[in-house]
Give the backbone structure.
Amino acid sequence: MNEREKEYLNEFKTYLSVEKNFSANTLTAYCSDVVSFILWLDNKSCTEVDFEILREYIRFIQRFEYKKTTIARKIASIRTFYKFLFRERYVETNPAAFLSAPKRPKSLPKFLTPEEVEQILNNVKIDTPAGFRNRVILELLWATGMRISELGNLNFGDLNLEENEIRVFGKGSKERIVLISDRAKEYLIRYINSARKLIAPGYDVKEPDDESPLFINSTGFRLQNKTIRNVINETVARIELPKKVTPHVFRHSFATKLIENGADLRVVQELLGHAGISNTQIYTHISMKHLRDVYESAHPHGSTT
């Protein structure tokens, strides 16, 4: 990789971070994909690439046993990279404009039953201020369907607890309002009034203002997503729940329960912050599966096949 291409890559990183508001994981993956592509080009500059070279690269990566989702992401990375180069006029034409990705296999999101969620919540150790904070975080994930990154980025100015509302900034910095249950609000108020100020002993944690992070770590700084994942992993392992549980599974569980209880699809879309209704419609398949299971267990001739 020559110096000019390193400059392109650094500018591309800034573009993904600032303008596209990509998460750290997605940004790393996209940049890694582009680096692999540039290295594959060998002595040819990335600005001298045409559509046929891109197709040759796609054929190359398809020789490996990548999942379709991985290949689709690699193609998306390259398309985004050349869209950026074209926008900045580093290339005269965009060779990736008509590059298509393989269709991603559709799979139903994994979700928890309300009983399983309660089992996890009730087994979070809350005998320390940090432990109580962790319980509050999981209560909010279950009550709101927020992404873990959205929850981690919450500031005090985003709270409107009188109306049981929280302002969230989702993908692309899109703003929306989510609602919280009375139980989640009570836990959150107890955290704010008591536990938060005890989490970072020995550090000067100032009285919070609107810009202060809602959830902090043991040094008084904003809590990292990794901590939340670790809490879930430790709790699930302790209770030996036979499911892989991630913060996103809480989001899926939230949406699934709403749909099963008859919530309008557009309302669920708004609460989840989905850009299009197609992203939300996958939960209707889960709901139909639930209806089918109920039918088959309750009806004397319940087989639907």
Notes: Residues 33 and 74 are 6 Å apart (CA to CA). The two ends are 58 Å apart (CA to CA).
